[in-house]
Design brief:
2 copies of one chain form a homodimer. Chain A has about 240 residues and is an alpha/beta fold. Chain A is built from 9 helices and 10 strands. The structure holds a DNA duplex (22 and 22 nucleotides).
DNA sequence: ACATGTGAACTGCTTCACAGCG
DNA sequence: CGCTGTGAAGCAGTTCACATGT
């Protein structure tokens, strides 16, 4: 969608090229923190849009999202100019642009690997569909679970996973398997050509550079809390 | 727990003492990223300790944790010097120090608020107890759930929550309630004096500065993935 | 000779401050 | 005049490189 970087293929005078390189709004490299905030802005926009607001400002978004107005404007500036000076932003327009930027225009097919407690909870989670995510497959290797229903779909044998991924059945996988099996499943998914994985397995995973992996590690979050509790001095 | 600073007890020349003062392991202000990595290092140490390793190096930890040896040493240096030059680190010693730093020496009483799908899954999650966390209470406001068993404890009415927190029954709360109720519960917990909250509610929450809040937002994580999928160029 | 511990350099995110435009 | 958009300054986290100690 965004061009990686073809500015140097055509004619390009040495030094100037380097300069021009940094200006255009292609995805140079957007910080993860920025993307997170875009999600936050969007959820507020949807909220106030539902309440009938038609206009908002970087100040509003900052207050609601726990950041600063300069940060909001800077975040948005990576992708274009969506506001009107002196007035602010059109709520419908901005939310639409953000949905587009975040890739929520298309609908994404998601599979959940692991039908244990967490996998089951996720497969029933209604919040997904509200935002372009559709769980169209659940996998487990436990014969006792295979064939059972889970959130509207039937649990399939994990041995089918690679074939299904290769067939293009999913764009995103959510891992809810024990730490021991996680890397094996990841490798399977990668072999099948999947490019986006969200893992709940409490272990460090490795993927090739062209695959995006996000990990949610409960233990790590809790340890962040106990660290703060244990070392609370004058800090937060 | 940490020695504040006994470097000045022995001989210590005036100015030098002031200088040395800023080095010692008090918690100046440790970056969240550092704490996360400490968790990772610890989990590897426990793994290789179980396999019988007695010594390791910053290089080993870096390779396993997906970072650099300099980063490992820098992270540890905020808390002291745990290694031996030319040799590396003692596995048992370092893991013990990390447990201490992360506050895993004590055992923490945790309550889960919200006995829906996610709350229930969490209350059954065995991974907690492995690491000093004990779920000793589960709360919900739905009469149909109150009194039922959930992961070894009985679901209590949320109306008891503030009293129980005030009584010191918990040090940590995990929120698994709908976005609409989340801030209300947070306020209740804060009023009761709780200082550490882990929220799974997909909404922005506000807490006083002396309360630590971590939020895990599924929607946000998924949007991070779709952003990457949509804007994949030469970037990761 | 080897691996730690750490100031110094560097990179990149955030904040500032103001020009630009409705 | 108000609020956006954005270079420039500031700051925080990471990486470098080497002195230090075994």
């Amino acid at each position: 969608m965004f061009q990686p970087d073809d500015c140097c293929s055509p004619v390009c005078t040495s030094l100037t090229c380097e300069e021009i390189h940094k200006l255009p709004p292609d995805v140079k490299r957007i910080a993860e923190s920025t993307v997170r905030r875009l999600s936050i802005y969007l959820s507020f926009l949807e909220e106030i849009e539902a309440r009938g607001a038609v206009t908002t400002s970087s100040d509003d978004l900052a207050r609601l999202g726990g950041t600063t107005s300069a940060q909001v404007r800077k975040d948005l500036s990576f992708f274009g100019s969506f506001g009107k000076r002196g007035l602010g932003y059109s709520v419908p327009e901005l939310s639409s642009r953000l949905r587009e930027i975040l890739g929520l225009g298309s609908q994404w097919k998601v599979c959940i690997v692991g039908a244990g407690k967490i996998g089951a909870a996720l497969s029933h989670y209604a919040g997904f569909a509200e935002r372009s995510f559709f769980v169209t497959g659940v996998y487990d290797s436990d014969p006792a679970k295979i064939g059972k229903a889970a959130g509207g779909v039937t649990v399939r044998d994990t041995s089918h996973l690679e074939r299904d991924v290769t067939a293009g059945d999913y764009q995103i996988a959510i891992l809810a398997v024990p730490a021991e099996n996680a890397q094996l499943i990841v490798d399977t998914l990668v072999r099948g050509g999947l490019k986006a994985i969200l893992s709940f397995a409490p272990t460090q995973l490795t993927v090739p550079a062209d695959v995006t992996l996000r990990t949610v590690n409960m233990a790590m979050e809790l340890e962040g809390l106990t660290f703060a509790l244990t070392n609370r001095g004058t800090d937060r």
